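Posting this for the archive.
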Amino acid sequence: MKLLRNTSIAVFSLFLFTVAAYWFNLDTKLVKVLEKPMMRHYDNLPRDHRL
């Protein structure tokens, strides 16, 4: 019974997190924060212009 209770709490918490992420558009905000460091990393990579 305790396992069922803990599993249901975990599933409900995950559901609340996904609803909050959707409601506040958190995935797009996270991508916006990570864009500058990722572009800086991409710009520093060596280029191979041969096709």
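DSSP finds two helices and no strands in the chain. The mean pLDDT is 93.
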